[in-house]
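Example 3.2
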Amino acid sequence: MTLSQQRPHDRHDWWRGATLYQIYPRSFLDANGDGIGDLKGITEKLDHVASLGVDAIWLSPFFTSPMDDFGYDVADYCDVDPMFGTLDDFRALIERAHALGLRVIIDQVLSHSSDQHEWFQESRRDRTNPKADWYVWADPRPDGTPPNNWMAAFSGRAWTFDARRRQYYLHNFLPSQPDLNFHHPEVREAHLDNLRFWLELGVDGFRFDVVNYFFHDPALTDNPPMPRERVQPGNPQSYQFQRHNIEQPENLAYLERIRALLDEYPGATSVGEIAGNDQLPTMAAYTAGDSRLHMAYTFDLLDSTGDAGALHEVLARFRELGDDTWPCWALSNHDVVRSATSWGEARALLALTVLCSLRGSLCLYQGEELGLPEAELAYEDLQDPFGINLWPEVKGRDGCRTPMAWDDSVNGGFCAEGVAPWLPVYARHRPLAVAHQEAAPDSLLNRVRRLLRLRGDSEVLRRGEQTLIDPADLPGDVFAVLRHDGDQRLLCLAHLGRQGATMARVRLDALVPGASGWSSLALPGMAAPQLEGRELDLAPGQATWLTIA
């Protein structure tokens, strides 16, 4: 049963304002000596995760898979790949997590399967078998070319010809990841059965991979070209606006079916990944009200470099889309450059302090609490097909997926010495390992623990409303939000200026007219701000949270 079912007095909306911790199983801890992380390794290190003060873990895929895309090509939706362990290992993981007060959210990759899945093996056999229409098949054009111009994410056309059926099949990602046909009612029901299987096993919710990719335009209309200024020359898919291969209106109705199922399991939650070309409006639509996703995230903040104006612009655009939506903000995950690199290693704590000030739920990625920078890998070390196919213009995602650093041994404590890890342990990560930082009271790890507890204990930060402060009312490079819940108000400020930036003087009366006074909360790793009357001085890299009287 879910943790909420075990503890019936817990709030079923625990997810609202919660902090999730993403674990990439291949890279967390190798417990069986094969150089690849596994479920027993995760269970062994759950005490570390619980010590951070987070509310839940999100596990990237561990299902049966040929691993062409490292688990995002599922060959069996209801079993564990032997590489990671067994279903009994997963049950033990849930039991241990729940004993520590951690909820368990698992990935679900519904839009596509592996070409090794028995569904696809049957579907491709001929045009008349019971699963013939479970995937997206289309006849060639008269000249033998694919049925339209859709491009795949990992380079090349989104169509592959199958000689047996003499048709093309759609794959928005690798050719070995055929897209399921969600217009077929049996496909929709099969995936609801898959979700129920894991809910009955005791998971507390799901993270849905590319949740806006479930349905396609059945007319197979060509996608229009992307405006040239938005094209990334090294990525062919970026040359077109993905209007017809994803984000069809039927998607919303299916999300409501999923939500109805989740509502049968008190406290079960959902978080959707929104990819594509117009992400914020989609995130708002997919989380509006209480009948769709509980929360979702986009790549807008994941691609952030910590510029105050750009950060305000993202949040302002989202604010315009409605108040009944709920975001899950993150700065790092398994698909993007680590925030310690994108924001700057010296600003790792600043980045998380800003993240903790925002309205919404949060997600941290393994190693973010250590300030791990993006790993630099040689081409011959790459495993990610995205990077291999588009190198060197696109380096792929391996740099954020290298093994977790637990100590300063050759393999960082991830696997035994003499065992070759699936990706190299980055040498610069070893001095930042958990064992080193545990022993230093003022390490980033211990400061992040205090920061997360400070946020977790604050009802204003977890659930309060948010007012963005207009950049015109702030000095350059300063970002600010006002969080409020009833009579409680908290002004969160951060000076995001980089090297060469100067001290910023903030006029507090201009930001919160009529306030009778301010008191500063002690933020981990941040010096107390200098207050002179109703003006405050912030140094570059400094943040402060002010309680307003």
